[in-house]
Design goal:
The structure is a homodimer of 313-residue chains. By secondary structure, the first copy, chain A, is α/β, with parallel strands linked by helices. Chain A has helices at residues 23-40, 58-69, 84-101, 110-113, 119-126, 130-148, 160-172, 176-181, 205-214, 231-245, 249-259, 292-309; strands at residues 12-14, 19-21, 49-53, 73-80, 105-109, 153-155, 185-186, 195-197, 277-278, 285-286. In chain A, the strands form three sheets. In chain A, strands 5-4-3-6-8-7 form a six-stranded mixed beta sheet, sandwiched between helices. A two-stranded antiparallel sheet of chain A has the order 1-2. A two-stranded antiparallel ribbon of chain A has the order 9-10. In chain A, strand 4, helix 3 and strand 5 (105-109) form a beta-alpha-beta unit. The radius of gyration of chain A is 21 Å and the shape is globular.
Chain lengths: 313, 313
């Protein structure tokens, strides 16, 4: 197969785009896709300060790399979740990536933020699933880091496969309020919060993997051990089968949703929530008197205290 | 496992309903499901004359059987499509079913309705896919038979798997006008037409197969040979995998769509079409001067004539 742009020997074949690319043209294609996504959704400007949440995986490191390449002022943020060897290896990859390029990296260690706040500990003590605990902790510490560092935007590496799987899940249960809110740009819900953007939302997992490989990015290949059996993976598998039978299915599903389908759900978000208040414990925005994170911390504290003193006689 | 209703030994286990049933209780469950679907969607009343489109497969024969059992006045309609041995064997099953129960069966033979109107001939001459030709011919002859016989309702055996696959296809492409119209009851679009209903729309393929087996219905097991490779089967396969990972997925997908999701698309059907006119060739309702069926017949006639006389010199 020949490169669709320059007719050189193609190194990668993208069935969804019915195109093939040599290495330089593929890197150009990838950058242009990110550029267009940023422009089409007004994600950020070169003047803004971007905080990139990096996990050590291919998507977030590819995102950091391409953002810098496109001239954005992007700082990395790594959340050390304390998920055993997986977290150790992820952190090493992120640190090596930043060191080699002389980049600023902020690291938040959950275990240092409060006793028992590492993901496995929270999951065990509160009997939440690890993924639910992780999601809530991520939201809180990402927001906090963005506010503390006076960033304008928080960027995450969610790719097309992630977003299409989330969309499929929302559609299978017809969660109309989630469908109304699923966008690649989330405006801040409180003056303290920052905008959240997903510049890779139309690039597939395969496409970011190829980009990372071609750019020589050394990333952690293993999946988070908690992901095994997650519903999200079942949705991804179903979409991959549909994609194999009809290339371009995922991209059309996502793109047409954002272009036309989502309009049907507009104006339906649960605005009955009202405006957020301020958490009386930590001062962050909250939907009640105390924010969800502080509630979680209080729950962890009380359950840990009970475990130490034993049940009351 | 024990029967959820009477505690006898269960013969069938329905994971989607988290229930098991012995044979008598399963038959009762199935009838109740059909009764409820008919009542909930105001599909038909016992006074109305129902025409049931029967293909010889499990779904349509189970539907005819259960409608009679529930006290409806249901006449069968079989469309002989001329798809070789498959059509011959299907017709035999339908005729045997009707004969054994002393039922009225109407048979429309496509080959007798006009030269070259059997499905394979239309597909070959017009270069349409067999499924597209078949769909259009079915619509026309079902409507015509319902009008000619002065029926009030046309019932088809579409099951949950069929409807969920169609819904998934509509969602993957965000075809909002199709999403607005996909209902188990379609009111007539013209005074001449009759209401169309799908009483099995919430019963899975497996559930109708079990019903047919328990009722001793002898049906044609083979799929239509033209169905191989059809997109619909890819959608069904994807949904079956989601169902296996999380039983009840298909039912929730369909039911929640009808209950809440579809509202978002309401008022969006392409009403710009205006009211249908009357076909100047056959007198049936038409969206232009000539109805889609008569256009097809004209195309078949002209292409056949050209094939006989050869290309003009």
């Amino acid at each position: 197969m020949k490169c669709t742009r320059c007719r050189a020997k193609a190194e990668v074949h993208l069935r969804a785009h019915n195109a093939g690319f040599c290495r330089p043209c593929y890197l150009g294609f990838f950058r242009r896709q990110v550029e267009r996504a940023i422009a089409a959704e007004c994600m950020c400007t070169p003047e803004e300060r971007v905080l990139v949440a990096v996990s050590g995986g291919k998507d977030s490191l590819a995102l950091w790399d391409v953002l810098l390449d496109l001239g954005y002022r992007a700082t990395g943020l790594y959340l050390a979740q304390g998920i055993g060897g997986y977290s150790t290896r992820s952190q090493e990859k992120v640190e090596a990536f930043a060191r080699a390029r002389g980049l600023t990296l902020r690291i938040v260690e959950l275990g240092m933020e409060g006793p028992g706040l590492a993901v496995p500990d929270v999951a065990a003590v509160t009997r939440r699933s690890a993924c639910s605990a992780c999601g809530m902790l991520k939201r809180h510490f990402f927001d906090e880091a963005a506010i503390a560092g006076e960033f304008d935007v928080l960027a995450t590496g969610h790719n097309l496969d992630d977003e299409a799987a989330r969309l499929l899940g929302n559609v299978l249960r017809w969660q109309v309020d989630h469908l109304a809110r699923q966008r690649p740009v989330l405006p801040p819900t409180h003056p303290k919060f920052v905008r959240k953007v997903k510049p890779l939302h139309l690039l597939s997992e395969y496409e970011t993997a190829v980009y990372a490989f071609m750019r020589g990015i050394d990333y952690v290949v293993e999946e988070c051990p908690n992901a095994a059996g997650a519903t999200q993976l079942v949705y991804k598998d179903a979409l991959n089968r549909l994609e194999a039978a009809s290339p371009g299915t995922k991209l059309a599903f996502m793109r047409e949703f954002l272009r036309t389908g989502q309009r049907a759900f507009a104006g339906r978000p649960a605005e009955a929530q009202g405006a957020p208040q301020t958490c009386t414990r930590c001062g962050m925005p909250a939907w009640g008197e105390v924010c969800a994170f502080c509630k979680l911390v209080a729950e962890v504290e009380s359950k840990r205290a009970r475990a130490v003193t034993g049940p009351a006689a």
